[in-house]
Design a protein that fits this description.
mainly alpha, Amino acid/polyamine transporter I, 2 strands, 72% helix
Length: 487
């Protein structure tokens, strides 16, 4: 790397080590205490809320996306190369112990995800396609600072639809080229670039509902496919499962495997890669959470917490065990997707490289769509101009095509830095507004204890700033008020 690249990488590592990681941990513990361990206590309600009926409008049409569609939309962004290349990088740098800290941060940050998704629901507003919201909206309506919301929106637009999506596209190109033994400097990456760009354009120009319908079918399919691959590989190394668990738990507190005894670096790598993967606290997933039509903000907060668990405890864990059972000696291990490819093909043979390429394509392409939507929601926050939206869509499609041909080192570093900045803007705001989430959680729990299907109206939270929706039980549920007989 050049001197500038080294300087940027060092600055980003220092930002995570001394600022972002400690704040993420401390605030995650704070939200866990304030919500009464909601991420564990209400786990059964998370699953139940996932299948809630979608409220309808006066014409009997769904008001917006369903809870499940919003879940898959956020999962589409969460479940991407961070689950394969990111986990591989974490293990190559931090050893097996990094996996433990990814698990712990997912558990702790489940509360952070609950807070940000609930706030996104509280402060959402109506749009042409349903509901829209996210950190920019709760920064303006809850904190009262449109300037802060605009800053966050601008950072997200640059970081996620462009930088992160370029990285997703690069990984697709790298994996497919490697699987087929093609020349990375030949025509194949160009063919992939054109195909990915056209595929992205066909979906994103169809609007949020097309994206949601696409991800609702894609996300479960790719999860099952990847789980099947993981079972095949782990099943071929059953004798390594117990030693792998022992290595994960031991190395988390000793750091002796790869990081040269630096327990702190193992922790930081676990936090950094865990957040890149599950996105809790970054403020990205709330953009999807706000799009759901539901009867109470807490319901979607619970659903999005389940998304963190799905991402880390299932998909990331599959990758970790694929690598650790097949490559017990990590000395000199390659970082990123190469480590996962080594484990997969070393166990199942060259044919598995083609299957992994397909899985990477599905994971990365779904992330491209989910990340695009986050950018769209924030473009809508900044301006209502359709011309600007068209330019944005064209820019994303072009950037995805370019990413297939780019070099990834600097893009990885810039994306890590951008995500740290997003977290440092978003998480303090969550701390300021968390009192409203606690009030909403109490309201929700009281209705559950009374045997009711929880419904929220804004009059029950009068001091929460500007709430655009949640006007009445009739508008929230889509049901007419009960008739009364007067004598």
């Amino acid at each position: 790397m050049s001197t500038v690249d080294v300087w940027v990488a060092t600055a980003v590592d220092d930002l995570w080590t001394w600022v972002a990681a400690p704040i993420v941990l401390v605030m995650g513990l704070y939200f866990t205490v304030r919500t009464g361990l909601v991420q564990v206590r209400l786990l059964p309600r998370m699953v139940r809320s996932l299948t809630d009926a979608t409220p309808v409008d006066a014409q009997g049409r769904p008001q917006s996306l369903s809870a499940f569609q919003a879940f898959t939309l956020s999962a589409a962004s969460r479940v991407g190369i961070g689950n394969i290349a990111g986990v591989g990088t974490a293990i190559a740098i931090g050893g097996p112990g990094a996996v433990f800290w990814m698990w712990m941060m997912a558990l702790i940050n489940g509360a952070t995800s609950f807070v940000e998704a609930t706030l996104a629901q509280l402060y959402k507003r109506r749009s042409r396609d349903g509901f829209v919201g996210g950190p920019a909206y709760y920064m303006e309506r809850g904190v009262g600072s449109r300037a802060l919301g605009m800053v966050y929106a601008a950072v997200l637009i640059v970081s996620v639809p462009f930088v992160v999506n370029s990285l997703q596209a690069y990984t697709i190109s790298e994996t497919v080229t490697g699987a087929f033994g093609a020349d990375p400097n030949g025509p194949v990456p160009w063919v992939i670039a054109v195909f990915i760009a056209l595929s992205t354009g066909l979906v994103v120009f169809g609007g949020v509902r097309r994206i949601a319908h696409f991800t609702a079918s894609l996300v479960p399919s790719m999860a099952v496919l990847y789980l099947t691959l993981g079972i095949l590989i782990v099943g071929s190394h059953l004798d390594q499962v117990v030693p792998v668990f022992e290595a994960i738990l031991t190395d988390a507190f000793t750091g002796n495997s790869v990081a040269g005894g630096a327990v702190g670096s193992v922790f930081v790598v676990g936090v950094q890669r865990g957040m890149f993967s599950n996105e809790a606290g970054l403020g990205t997933a709330p953009n999807a959470a706000a799009s759901a039509a539901t009867t109470h903000p807490v319901k979607q907060g619970l659903v999005q917490t389940l998304g963190v668990y799905f991402d880390t405890f299932i998909v990331c864990s599959i990758t970790a065990f694929i690598i650790l059972v097949a490559v017990p000696d990590l000395s000199g291990a390659s970082r990123g997707i190469e480590l996962t490819e080594t484990a997969v093909m070393g166990t199942l043979g060259a044919w598995a490289g083609y299957l992994l390429a397909l899985i990477v394509f599905l994971l990365a392409f779904s992330t491209i769509l989910g990340s695009y939507y986050y950018g769209e929601a924030n473009i809508s926050y900044l301006t209502s101009s359709r011309a600007v939206m068209r330019v944005f869509r064209i820019g994303v499609v072009a950037c995805v095509g370019w990413g297939c041909l780019a070099q990834a080192n600097v893009v990885w570093t810039l994306s890590d830095g951008a995500l740290a900045v997003m977290a440092l803007i978003n998480i303090p705001v969550l701390g300021v507004l968390s009192r409203h989430v606690v009030a909403l959680l109490r309201n929700y729990s009281a209705q559950v204890r009374a045997g009711q299907d929880p419904v929220f109206v804004r009059d029950t939270l009068p001091n929460a700033g500007r709430i655009d929706v949640w006007e009445s039980e009739e508008t929230v549920t889509g049901r007419p008020p009960p008739h009364t007989n007067e004598g």
